[in-house]
Predict the structure of 4-hydroxy-tetrahydrodipicolinate reductase.
Amino acid sequence: MTAIGIIGSKGRMGQALVAAIAEAEHAHAGGADQGDDVAALVGASDVLVDFSSPKALQATLDACVAAGKPIVIGTTGLEDAHHAAIDAAATNIPVLQTGNTSLGVNMLAALVEQAAGRLGDDWDIEIVEMHHRHKVDAPSGTAKLLGEAAARGREIDLANNSESGRDGITGARKKGAIGFAALRGGSVAGDHTVILASDEERIELTHRAENRMIFARGAVKAAGWLAGQSAGRYGMDGVLGLQ
Ligand SMILES: NC(=O)C1=CN([C@@H]2O[C@H](COP(=O)(O)OP(=O)(O)OC[C@H]3O[C@@H](n4cnc5c(N)ncnc54)[C@H](OP(=O)(O)O)[C@@H]3O)[C@@H](O)[C@H]2O)C=CC1
Ligand SMILES: O=C(O)C1=N[C@H](C(=O)O)C[C@H](O)C1
């Protein structure tokens, strides 16, 4: 049994995590939200799970490093500086960061990597995502994860080969670009489609999340797995046996 502390415990994912921790028969060490003492929660936990806000990340990482506690980071909307902070923390503690903790999305990423690599850049790649009206970041962390998978398959760098937020006279699509489009509305838990389009045919690979328990169960599984790892930065492949 692992004592799991939740950063962002009162949120939509925080509540799903409480249920998933009970279901997996781990212990819920408590939660921290805005204004709470994160160091106290870290001290009471074997491992932390963070589904909150990028603004919380640095203080959370500092507390985990100071106490030598592993952390699973599911928060999205991360920028380069956040990833640099994660890399630095991972030299001291185990850190697992992912835009999506579900089995289905991580399987989809493996399929996208393979398709992008085998089809080549005569096939345009567009990633379309839809989420509930409350989501604050775009494109989603999952869309970025799928974009990274496509870029890996093509052996290109995503940062220099992506197009998003098209509006007005944009010019023609750049050959080899990976495009992103974000839709928001209703209560959608998370839909992602990767479209591979050639001149004469099109492939669409889709994942639809029907509820948040798929993310929560994946995060709890990741927490149990991470508690047994040494310092370093990890993704979901080892947790889900997709390596
Ligand atoms: N990787 C994955 O598989 C998934 C990732 N996510 C990501 O998880 C994050 C949370 O999503 P969701 O639960 O829907 O969001 P919510 O807005 O419902 O919950 C966010 C929670 O984080 C808390 N919070 C905000 N700022 C801080 C802070 N500075 N310190 C501590 N706690 C803070 C909020 O507390 P308060 O209300 O007091 O501000 C709230 O309880 C998002 O980034 C989302 O994209 C979501 C699903 C799956
Ligand atoms: O905010 C959400 O809800 C979700 N966020 C993650 C993301 O940004 O990809 C994962 C999931 O799609 C739900």
Q: What stands out?
A: DSSP finds eight helices and eleven strands in the chain.
